[in-house]
Write a structure and sequence with these properties.
Chain B: Residues 347-456 form the Asn/Gln amidotransferase domain. The complex is a heterodimer of chains A (108) and B (456). By secondary structure, chain A is of the alpha+beta class. Chain A has helices at residues 5-15, 22-36, 71-75, and strands at residues 60-61, 81-82, 85-88. Chain A has a domain at 1-40. Chain B has two domains: 5-288, no CATH class; 318-439, no CATH class. Chain B has helices spanning 54-66, 170-187, 226-245, 307-312, 318-329, 333-341, 345-355, 360-377, 389-400, 406-417, 424-430, 439-455; strands at residues 5-15, 52-53, 70-71, 74-75, 78-81, 91-94, 101-111, 119-133, 137-141, 146-150, 157-167, 199-208, 218-223, 254-258, 263-266, 279-280, 287-288. In chain B, the strands form four sheets. In chain B, strands 3-7-8-11-1-12-13-14-15 form a nine-stranded mixed sheet. Classes of the chains: A alpha+beta (108), B alpha+beta (456). At the A-B interface, strand 1, helix 3 and strand 3 of A face strand 2, helix 1, strand 9, strand 10 and strand 17 of B.
């Protein structure tokens, strides 16, 4: 079962990844086949597991103010700031639709 | 012409009243210098992990209990993915699979035909309450084509209260939200001040013909007050009816309420249907809550949340307080409703009653008509009233003892309102408003008037 172009395009939009070329898509295909081996296990009557830590105790923190106040340090990571604000483009710039952008997927 | 049945559901986000954020120790505060209340975790710097704030869980449990919900003893956290500049991690930690509370109800009152004298009680089902993170704030600078981001709000704890589509108009939606606001404020789980963004409401609106399936719904956002909520919902109902009667269709879209124009407008392109790719939050094990029966013997108290312990300590909810006021003071339900609807007014009323011999049934008129009338006229809150409960009680005592007339009392109140520090008695003396009680003196005056008449 091959991954369809629609699904690949959908993934590129959602996760902003670029499958770049046939090799990239093939790698994805192989990863899915590898994970599909899990279906061979009979899990009837077994509760799905979220993580190996799921039966640990969830630690509850007291409601005290213990951090923050490090504006300068945080802003150092930003290429551009304006008066202690981070700067971002005006709203999301969506990836152009499949027919309108240069992607290897077009030829698939 | 077949009748239309409007259907309204609500999603309410209430900011939890706590010192620090849901998963980090940075402070929760309105209006602070940008990015000053932000920890490394809030900024989503690599290597940071969420640590759950106990107070936020207690707030959600309190709220769930007050809304008659079943509290899930095991609830889970999930990631909801989407890209936006004010969501640095690229996902929000929420509770999509198993939220902390489900299946509750909220009762609220409505006046029929705008007459305060006829109130009905309605109920809306609460689908669920979930804990989730708030996002940061985006300031759009259209002139420079950029967005400025302040992460002070990023990570603040929210309770999302989802109300089933049991409401049918703007008035019902507004009344339900108002009651929820009063409950949250009474519990202290949220201060629920809409103007400060502590209470945000999204409405889902659709219309259909009786007996037919529900129509396509639109989501209304950007509603800044309870008044605008009612207007937005009613406008949208009308818009949908007109559109359908003209043969058009309703799009499943998100619309914003434009308060200046009084209408709803489609929200800027939301990129089609969102796929949030929900997944379990791998860094947080399930949240386990206990009750008296299931309380573990050997656990550190600070790590245990006991639902029954919280239940026992819930304060009287507004509906209970209203009934108590009616029972204790013999006032009407609609009076009690107005007392509870105004912050501090019920307390003011009770203080006056304590300090005066006048019957509560008479005092209530002075509180609701005269005092409240003045406050509304001058846009003041009860706390800002220049007339204290002590002064008003003093005045009402003069009236009760028949030392002044009712008309004179109103005059004194007008003078007291100026807040010049005079006592009621001083004003009565100044303006010579005392009622004459002395029989002989009254006879002399009457006789003098009669004599004057005869002489003319």
């Amino acid at each position: 079962q091959k991954v369809s172009v629609e699904v690949l395009d959908h993934l590129e939009h959602l996760a902003l990844v670029d499958f770049r070329d046939a090799e990239g898509v093939e790698r994805l295909q192989k990863a899915i086949e590898f994970a599909d081996q899990l279906h061979e296990v009979n899990t009837d009557g077994v509760e799905p597991m979220d993580s190996v830590l799921e039966d640990r105790c969830l630690y509850l923190r007291e409601d005290d103010v213990t951090e923050g106040n490090c504006t300068k340090e945080l802003l150092e990571n930003a290429r551009e700031t304006v008066e202690e604000y981070f700067v971002a483009p005006p709203g999301n710039i969506p990836l152009p639709k499949l027919g309108e952008r240069e992607t290897f997927l077009q030829d698939s | 012409l077949a009748p239309w049945v409007p259907v309204v559901g609500l999603e309410v986000h209430a900011q939890i009243s706590s010192n620090s954020k849901l998963f980090s120790g940075s402070q929760v505060q309105f209006a602070a210098p940008p990015n000053s209340l932000v920890s490394f975790f809030d900024a989503s710097l690599p290597g940071t992990l969420p640590v759950l704030n106990r107070r936020c869980v207690e707030a959600a449990v309190m709220t769930g209990l007050a809304l008659n919900c079943s509290i899930n003893k095991k609830s889970l956290f999930d990631r909801k993915h989407y890209f936006y500049a004010d969501l640095p991690a690229g996902y929000q930690i929420t509770q999509q699979r198993v939220p902390i509370a489900v299946n509750g109800s909220l009762s609220y009152s409505l006046c029929i035909d705008n007459k305060m004298s006829q109130m009905v009680t309605k109920t809306v089902r609460i689908k669920q309450i979930q804990l989730e993170q708030d996002s940061g704030k985006s300031l759009h600078d259209d002139t420079r084509s950029q967005t400025l981001v302040d992460l002070n709000r990023a990570g603040v704890g929210l309770m999302e209260v989802v109300m089933e589509p049991d409401m049918c108009c703007g008035e019902e939606a507004a009344a339900a939200v108002r009651e929820l606001q009063l409950i949250l404020q009474t519990l202290g789980s949220s201060q629920a001040v809409m103007a400060e963004g502590q209470l945000r409401v999204d409405a889902n609106v659709s219309v259909h013909h009786p007996g037919e399936p529900y129509g396509v719904r639109t989501e209304l956002k950007n509603i800044n007050s309870i008044r605008f909520l009612a207007k937005a919902v009613d406008y949208e109902i009308q818009r949908q009816i007109e559109e359908l009667e003209n043969g058009g269709t309703i799009l499943n879209e998100t619309r914003a309420f434009d308060s200046k124009l009084g209408c709803t407008v489609p929200l800027r392109d939301k990129e089609g249907k969102q796929d949030y790719r929900f997944m379990p939050e791998p860094n947080l094990p399930p949240l386990i809550l206990y009750d008296a029966k299931s309380l573990p013997a050997n656990m550190n108290h600070q790590q245990v949340i006991n639902i029954d312990w919280i239940h026992e300590r819930l304060p009287d909810l507004p509906s209970v307080k209203r009934e108590k006021l009616v029972e204790q003071y013999g006032i009407l339900p609609e009076h009690s409703f107005t007392l509870m609807n105004e912050d501090g007014l019920a307390e003011f009323f009770e203080n006056v009653v304590k300090q005066t011999q006048m019957k509560p049934k008479k005092v209530i008129g002075w509180i609701l008509k005269d005092l409240l009338g003045y406050l509304k006229e001058h846009s003041l809150t009860v706390k800002e009233s220049p007339v204290s409960s002590y002064l008003l009680a003093d005045l009402l005592n003069l009236l009760e003892k028949k030392e002044i007339s009712s008309t004179a009392a109103k005059q004194v109140l007008a003078e007291l309102w100026k807040g010049e520090g005079k006592t009621p008695l001083e004003i009565v003396k100044e303006q010579k408003l005392q009622l004459l009680q002395d029989q002989k003196e009254l006879e002399q005056i009457c006789q003098a008037v009669i004599d004057r008449q005869e002489n003319e």
